[in-house]
Design goal:
Length: about 550
């Protein structure tokens, strides 16, 4: 709470660096931040720290409409990216970007696509925005020309055709815009949703626990955002926020501020997606002050081999966490909060270590405030995400399957690792000493199993590093900070989210994370894919490289 008050005090005095904001937010592009938030939300009614604020029913996806579950058949899909409005804060229409579609007689916005593994997916993106865009299918194994590379961004009015076989395992994937240098603003503005793949392992779990998507199997997308006095989304990163990432002070789950969900006394599945630009969450289910155990069953690339009990798990931008929560142990009327617990993101420690920042070095958090990081909710503060209320008795299977799937560890014996460094140079986050170059590959990989040692030498920020084209396995972590070490329950200093297939991995300040990737699965012909930080301000700030797979 101390730091929170401190940041709040700073927010009142800080000079806000206004920068040009594009398509969605141009109407808000004036004046200091406190004009936009401080006045109309004096008292901060959507403050997620205060439990009593949690009075809004959680938005649950239905069978059509916004975020409706769309079961994709053979028929092609058209996704029209459009600037529309969407009621978010207290039902007030906010400018919002969404993918609009009609399919089998129903209409959807940002549909949750539900696709069978092994099927063919065919869709056309229509760009109805007034700036370039492209869709990236996050986590899918696709040929480079289907992957939504920023070089494939299409101009307003143009179409991009996608058609590919869905070869991934079952799991919780997602899709979002990947427009060159516009990803952060467009994704924050709304262009993102789930891509759920089903396979036999999934079906087995669903039938063993009698789960229903949208009832007892609930996708939760967690996003922190800022709003102006009229309840419209604000995206206006200052110079420091471009550097550190843009944080909001209103935390939305399924676009609902301060949500609650009535549940029955049975097992629920929650598929959490961190769809935030930059915030890291430490997820725990709290019954009063008691951390309840939950079962982690899946990560970015689908189910784990078995359920792993946990009480707290970090989730960085773009990562997914699939959990089972057993409410049969609770009494009717009891409440439990899904929370993000306090942790030290090590950001202010790093300020002194940011060699490239010249005169700002060592001045710490006060500079951070003055440079535009005005959020009332600093990264690492504790707050509530979702209130669960046991509202009814419910019958359901009690027995969680002992085994969920099979995961074969990649054989990495004798492989010498590729060194991948994350660094900061003249206020630019870099990978292997380079900023993004659209038409050049920073390195070429072998069509073999590779081991990458990702070294976070920036010493000041967590970087969630994301690989396009392939899932990978985490082999180990060294030099993990104190915040992470207690959660390292598996060999090699690994945490529970390291135990499944991944496409995004958190690399903490000072840490080295070793991953293994099987490039033998690569598709024929030369392929150019991205590797980047999924802090979206870092991504747009060119903390991204192309890597090439030779023909
Ligand atoms: Cu989810 Cu390259 O991104
Ligand atoms: Cu991706
Ligand atoms: Cu980063």
């Amino acid at each position: 709470m101390e730091r929170r008050k401190f940041i709040r005090a700073l927010a009142g005095t800080a000079a806000f660096t206004s920068t040009g904001a594009g398509l969605l937010f141009s109407a808000c592009g004036k004046g200091p931040l406190e004009d936009k938030i401080g006045e109309s939300f004096a008292g901060y009614p959507h403050d997620p720290v205060r439990a009593e604020n949690f009075t809004n029913p959680l938005f649950i996806p239905g069978g059509e409409g916004p975020f409706g579950v769309l079961s994709v058949t053979d028929a092609p899909l058209t996704l029209a990216a459009q600037a529309k409005t969407f009621p978010i804060l207290d039902g007030r229409a906010s400018p919002f970007l969404l993918y609009d579609t009609s399919y089998a007689g129903k209409s959807y916005q940002n549909p949750i696509l539900r696709v069978k593994s092994g099927s063919r997916f065919t869709a056309t993106l229509q760009n109805g925005l007034n700036e370039p865009t492209i869709i990236h299918w996050h986590g899918l194994h696709l040929p480079a020309n289907m992957d939504g590379h920023p070089n494939d961004s299409i101009a307003p009015g143009k179409n991009y055709p996608y058609t590919f076989p869905v070869t991934n395992r079952g799991g919780t994937y997602w899709y979002h815009t990947h427009a060159h240098e516009l990803t952060a603003e467009q994704a924050y503005g709304g262009l993102a949703s789930f891509f759920i793949i089903e396979d036999d392992d999934e079906l087995r779990l669903v039938s063993a626990l009698d789960l229903k998507l949208g009832e007892t199997d609930i996708p939760l997308v967690i996003q922190d955002k800022r709003f102006n006095a009229t309840g419209e989304l604000v995206y206006q990163p200052g110079m420091m926020e471009k550097m550190m990432g843009y944080l909001g002070d209103i935390v939305l789950v399924n676009l609902t501020p301060n949500p609650y969900l009535e549940i029955g006394s049975r097992i629920y599945r929650f598929r959490c997606l961190n769809g935030s630009n930059a915030r890291v969450y430490k997820l725990a289910f709290m019954r009063g002050n008691e951390k309840m155990a939950y079962q982690v069953i899946g990560t970015d690339g689908g189910l784990l081999d078995r359920p792993y009990p946990a009480t707290e798990v970090f989730l960085a931008p773009a990562e997914r966490l699939d959990v089972l929560f057993d409410a049969s142990q609770l009494r009717q009327g009891e409440t439990v909060f899904l929370k993000s617990l306090a942790f030290d993101p090590m950001e202010q420690d790093g300020m002194g270590g940011m060699g490239g920042m010249g005169g700002m070095g060592g001045q710490g958090n006060s500079q951070l405030g003055q440079m535009g990081d005005n959020t009332r909710l600093a990264n690492g503060l504790e707050f509530n995400l979702l209130k669960l209320v046991v509202a009814k008795a419910a019958q359901g299977p009690r027995e969680i399957p002992a085994s969920l799937s099979t995961l074969a560890p990649l054989d990495t014996a004798g492989i010498s690792p590729r060194r991948v460094t994350l660094s900061l140079n003249h206020m630019q986050w870099q990978i292997n000493g380079q900023s993004y170059r659209r038409d050049a590959a920073t390195f070429e990989v072998k069509r073999a199993v590779e081991v990458w040692n990702i070294e976070n030498a920036t010493n000041s920020m967590i970087h969630p590093m994301h690989l396009h084209g392939f899932s990978f396995q985490v082999l180990g972590r060294t030099n993990s900070p104190a915040a992470l070490r207690p959660l390292a329950t598996a060999s090699g200093g690994r945490v529970v989210t390291d135990l499944g297939w991944k496409d995004t991995v958190m690399v903490w300040p000072g840490e080295t994370v070793r991953i293994a990737i099987d490039f033998r699965q690569a598709l024929p012909g030369e392929q150019l894919y991205l590797f980047h930080c999924h802090n979206l301000e870092h991504e747009d700030g060119n903390m991204m490289v192309n890597y090439r797979i030779p023909a």
